[in-house]
Design a protein that fits this description.
This protein is α+β, with helices and mostly antiparallel strands and 374 residues long. Helix 2 (10-24) packs across helix 3. Among the domains are: 215-313; 315-374, no CATH class. It contains 16 helices and six strands.
Length: 374
C-alpha cells in the first residue's frame, strides 16, 4: 500500500480494498475485515452508497472468504440495492435506444457523454451508477429539443450548457456546449478545443445503442474538466476517481498522453491532474503511468482525498427574486465560495476570480441553475 492509503480510517481502507478487487481483481487484504461488527459493516455499506460505488463494492465482497463476509441481513440488503442499480441502468439503456431511434429517424447523429459511455470501461457496466443521459447532437441542439417538445414533453432550458428533460422515465441532458462558454474566454477556448478534437476523431459507433462514443483523447480532457466541476461543488466522489482510473489505464500511446499533459499545463489545470492521477494510483491501486503528471504534491493529494471521502455539500437555499433576498443570497454564496477558494485555485489560479465575477454579474453561481441555453 501507499502512505496516502495507510493514513486513511479503517472503513475507507475497507471500501478501497473492495474496489481494487472489483476493478482489477487485486487480492483483498482479509485483515481489514477480520472481526468487524455489524455496525462497521453498515458504515461501510453506507459509505459505498455515498461515494457512488455501491454495486462496485458489492462485487468486491466476492473477493472475501465466506467466513468474513457481511451478516446475512446486510448482505441481502446490499444485493437488493445492487439489483436496483442494475435495473435502473437497463431502463436507461432502453430509454437511450428509444431516444436515439427517434433522433436517427429525423437525421440527427448522437454522441454519448460520460455516464453510460464510461460504464463500458467497467468489468460489469451495469454496476457503474449513472444519474442521467448526457447527449451531444452535433449542431442539432435546437432540432433535438423541438422533437422532444413535439411529443408533449417539457424541456427545461435553465442552463448555459444543456437543456434538460425526462424521456420515458430517464433524465436526459442535451448539450448545447461542453462547458459554460458564456463565462469567459478560458471556458470558450477549452470548449472550442473539445469541438476540434471531436471533428478530428474517428468516432466509435455503438450500433446496439444507436450512439457514437468519443475517442479516448476527447474523454481524457472532457472527463477531467467535468470532474473539476464536481470537485468545486463538493460532490467529487470515488465514482469519478474510478472513471478516471479506468480511462487512463487504457492510455498506452505516449503521444496521446503528452497531448493531454500539454493541454492541462497550457490551461493551468495541471495541479488537479497531478492530484487526480496520484489518487488513482495511491487509493485504487492503478499501476503508476510515469508519462502522466503525478506525484508532485503528495500533501495536496492527501487533502483532496480527505475532501473526497468526507462528502461535503455546498448548495445554497433558493430565496426568491426579492431584491433584499437576492442580495442576501449573493452574500451567502460569496461567503461559501471564499471558504472553498482553495478548490478553485487547485484547478486554475484565476478560476475563483472569474467565477466570482460571473456569479455576481449574472446573479447565479456554478452550483445553481442558469439562463436558458440558446
Amino acid at each position: 500500500m501507499t502512505p496516502l492509503f495507510d493514513a486513511l480510517p479503517p472503513v475507507q481502507k475497507r471500501l478501497l480494498s473492495l474496489l481494487q478487487y472489483s476493478l482489477w481483481g487485486k487480492e483483498v487484504d482479509a485483515t481489514y475485515f477480520s472481526d468487524i461488527a455489524h455496525a462497521q459493516w453498515k458504515e461501510l455499506m453506507e459509505l459505498a452508497a455515498c461515494q457512488g460505488v455501491f454495486a462496485l463494492a458489492y462485487d468486491g465482497l466476492t473477493g472475501l472468504p465466506t467466513a468474513i463476509r457481511p451478516p446475512k441481513a446486510l448482505l441481502i440488503q446490499w444485493a437488493m440495492g445492487t439489483k436496483q442499480i442494475e435495473n435502473r441502468y437497463l431502463h436507461q439503456i432502453k430509454s437511450l435506444k428509444s431516444l436515439t431511434g427517434l433522433y436517427c429517424k429525423n437525421g440527427i447523429k448522437t454522441l454519448l457523454l460520460k455516464g453510460i459511455g464510461l460504464s463500458l470501461l467497467y468489468p460489469v457496466p451495469e454496476h457503474r451508477e449513472s444519474g442521467d443521459l448526457d447527449l451531444f447532437l452535433f449542431g442539432d441542439y435546437v432540432k433535438g429539443n423541438n422533437l422532444i417538445e413535439e411529443k408533449g414533453i417539457a424541456v427545461d432550458f435553465h442552463s448555459y450548457v444543456h437543456s434538460h428533460f425526462t424521456y420515458e422515465g430517464t433524465m436526459v441532458e442535451n448539450h448545447y456546449s461542453f462547458l459554460n462558454i458564456e463565462r469567459d474566454k478560458w471556458d470558450s477556448d477549452l470548449d472550442m478545443l473539445l469541438l476540434q478534437m471531436l471533428s478530428q476523431d474517428v468516432l466509435q459507433l455503438k450500433e446496439e445503442l444507436g450512439v457514437h462514443i468519443p475517442s479516448r483523447s476527447f474523454n481524457l480532457l472532457f472527463v477531467h474538466l467535468h470532474s473539476t466541476k464536481h470537485f468545486i461543488k463538493s460532490d467529487f466522489v470515488l465514482r469519478q476517481l474510478c472513471d478516471w482510473a479506468l480511462l487512463i489505464r487504457q492510455c498506452t500511446e505516449i503521444e496521446e498522453i503528452e497531448t493531454f499533459n500539454e493541454i492541462v499545463r497550457k490551461f493551468d489545470l495541471h495541479r488537479f491532474a497531478d492530484a487526480f492521477n496520484t489518487l488513482a494510483s495511491a487509493l485504487l491501486g492503478l499501476p503508476v503511468n510515469e508519462n502522466f503528471i503525478q506525484y508532485q504534491d503528495l500533501a495536496l493529494a492527501q487533502t483532496v482525498a480527505k475532501e473526497m471521502m468526507s462528502q461535503t455539500s455546498a448548495v445554497p437555499v433558493a430565496l426568491g427574486n426579492n431584491p433584499v433576498k437576492t442580495l442576501f443570497r449573493k452574500m451567502k454564496t460569496v461567503s461559501s465560495m471564499f471558504d472553498r477558494r482553495w478548490r478553485f485555485y487547485l484547478i486554475n489560479r484565476n478560476y475563483f476570480l472569474r467565477e466570482l465575477l460571473f456569479g455576481l454579474r449574472h446573479n447565479s453561481f456554478i452550483f445553481t441553475k442558469h439562463q436558458a441555453a440558446k
